[in-house]
Design brief:
Helices cover 50% and strands 24% of the residues. The protein is an alpha+beta fold and 238 residues long. The model has no long low-confidence stretch (mean pLDDT 88).
């Protein structure tokens, strides 16, 4: 039975991250997963999937939809650090680094679904299934590249251009108009700039038609997105 479960988990991960074949979980596979503590869970916007500081007892595979990554400072203040769309694996880095608790909270952004797998089951699949190993390696490579790109964006570009690139990156695969979930203070901290500087850059972007403000929220409309796409292509060329 262990080998069958490892194979099913490997097939799911392969279809999402390796794209070697289209895989649809059939009723038999679904029953096996459910009998061993796995579950498919749908979630709505703002619904919490993972609470920072709680025990790492499951790994969550984001099958569709998108989620927000929320971190907490020493004073307990929460801030949105990222928005990620499917496919993703939440709880993986904590599991393989043997952390006892989740390092961030995960909250639903757009309605979607996750496959929750008990940590022990997922760890066993990593140890005994090649497809799982390959998918995990590819996903960790993706995370490393994404973090490096974010670091380069903040350090190689002027703050206003870095802001534009991030707004484009966050909105490019989202339904428009896109509303940024991150507040201005969190955004300033993310870009490592002062809040008053952020307001100045946002004013410049609004004048250029690269973003707008709707109900107090930074918003990217279709027209803004087209302008952002053109502006960011010029930045990249230079």
């Amino acid at each position: 039975m262990d080998e069958i479960i490892n194979l099913i988990i490997g097939n799911v991960l392969s279809s999402l991250f390796l794209q070697t074949a289209k895989y649809t979980t059939n009723q038999k596979d679904l029953a096996v997963l459910m009998q061993n503590g796995c579950s498919f869970q749908t979630f709505a916007p703002s619904q919490k999937l993972i609470s920072c500081g709680t025990a790492v007892n499951k790994v969550f595979i984001l099958v569709n939809g998108s989620c927000l990554i929320v971190c907490h400072n020493q004073d307990g203040k929460a801030s949105v650090q990222d928005s990620l769309q499917a496919p993703q694996i939440f709880g993986l880095t904590e599991l393989i680094s043997e952390q006892q608790s989740y390092s961030a909270s995960v909250i639903g952004d757009r309605t979607g679904m996750v496959l929750a797998i008990p940590s022990a089951l997922f760890l066993r699949a990593i140890r005994h299934n090649l497809a799982t190993d390959q998918a995990v390696i590819k996903y960790l490579t993706y995370l490393a590249r994404r973090n490096m790109d974010a670091w380069e964006c903040c350090n190689l570009y002027a703050p206003k251009d870095a802001l534009s690139l991030h707004l484009y990156d966050w909105s490019k695969d989202q339904q428009l108009p896109y509303t940024l979930k991150m507040g201005r203070l969190d955004l300033a901290e993310f870009l490592h700039i002062q809040l008053r500087s952020l307001y100045r850059y946002l004013d410049d972007l609004k004048k250029q038609g690269l973003c707008c403000v709707v109900n107090g929220k930074i918003t990217i409309t279709e027209a803004n997105f087209r302008a952002l796409e053109n502006y960011c292509s010029i930045i990249a060329e230079n």
